[in-house]
Design goal:
The structure is a single chain. The chain is built from 11 helices and 13 strands. It is globular and about 60 Å long. It is α/β, with parallel strands linked by helices and 315 residues long. Bound molecules: zinc ion (ZN). The site of zinc ion (ZN) has 6 residues, from loops.
Length: 315
């Protein structure tokens, strides 16, 4: 009886795959670029990267993919920011490798990874918020991953919070992820370079608004730049307000924040925590809900996918 699985995290820019044992230890890894504009090629790359990691101990494949994954069939139905529609991922990977394949949303598998092996260890009720370019979510409720009726639960980035706000990849205006994640930091960062040419954030971007991204803003803020700190305070506030709404709905014990926001750390998370405390219902009449940085970094999704695949076997 083998006890290893391959976990694959399929994002819009790269496919990261790991061979993992039951304890979540990483035994081998491969990363390749995602041919995101070509669905067939994407399926082919997932299969070939998994094949390269195979060993006789591998008994299952787990895949986390950026988009809405239908439970049961493991079909990626829709990706708001990518061209993928109706990709039969589980079926194709099982055909290619002859192994059972479990496919889930990328933030769901990351939530499962953090729940088992990361910042969510020991909590039965956990909300994961992944803050990168956009926002993804994963919900662990009663020690189990919550999928909803079809597998589409926890698409938390696409709640409209600003009806006249920026256009989102899903087609709506003012989704939460447009004001509380990487695109908002980029947008405010570009404005800051134009409005505050003497700031450190402008200097780090060589004065070019197009060269500003979350990394530049975060570095400037961590080095004490007020302009950059104000950007992260504003985006962090929107993040914390949204988390408060989700905590009102879900009542978790802990909120784990992953993605690039976890790397930014307290320059983003402290404003989020403050806004959360202001906005959550009855903060003085409920246990404190810690908002923690994720611990597994970019490996959370693949590790969680592998663990889910092993659990699907009944192990
Ligand atoms: Zn949206």
């Amino acid at each position: 009886m083998g006890d290893q699985a391959i976990g694959v995290d399929v994002g819009g820019t790269k496919i990261a795959a790991l061979r993992v044992d039951r304890d979540g230890s990483i035994l081998a890894r491969e990363t390749v670029p995602t041919p995101a504009e070509d669905a067939e090629a994407t399926l082919g790359e997932i299969a070939s990267v998994a094949v390269r990691l195979l060993s006789p101990e591998v008994v299952a494949i787990g895949v986390g993919a950026a988009g809405m994954v239908e439970a049961g069939t493991g079909t990626l139905r829709y990706a708001p920011n990518l061209a993928w529609r109706d990709l039969p991922v589980a079926e194709r990977i099982t055909q290619a490798l002859g192994l059972p394949c479990h496919v889930d949303n990328d933030a769901n598998v990351a939530a499962w990874g953090e729940h088992l092996f990361g910042a969510g260890r020991g909590y039965e009720h956990m909300l994961l918020v992944t803050v990168g370019t956009g926002i993804g979510g994963g919900i662990v409720s009663g020690g189990r991953l919550f999928h909803g009726a079809h597998g589409f639960a926890a698409e938390i980035g696409h709640v409209i919070v600003e009806p006249d706000g920026p256009v989102c990849g899903c087609g709506n205006r003012g989704c939460w992820e447009q004001v509380a994640a990487g695109r908002a930091i980029d947008r405010l960062g570009r404005e800051a370079v134009r409005d505050h040419p003497r700031s450190l954030v402008a200097a780090l971007a060589d004065g070019d608004p197009e060269r500003v991204d979350g990394r530049v803003v975060t570095e400037a803020a961590q080095r004490g730049d007020d302009v950059a700190a104000r950007i992260l305070a504003e985006v962090g506030r929107r993040l914390g307000e949204g988390i408060a709404g989700l905590v009102n709905i879900l009542d978790p014990e802990v909120v784990v924040v992953g993605g690039g926001a976890a790397l930014a750390g307290d320059v983003l998370l402290e404003p989020a925590r403050a806004a959360f405390r202001d906005a959550v219902e009855a903060p003085d009449h409920r246990p404190e809900v810690p908002i923690l940085a994720a611990e597994l970094g970019n490996d959370a999704g693949a590790v969680g996918a592998a663990a889910l695949a092993l659990e699907e076997l009944g192990g």
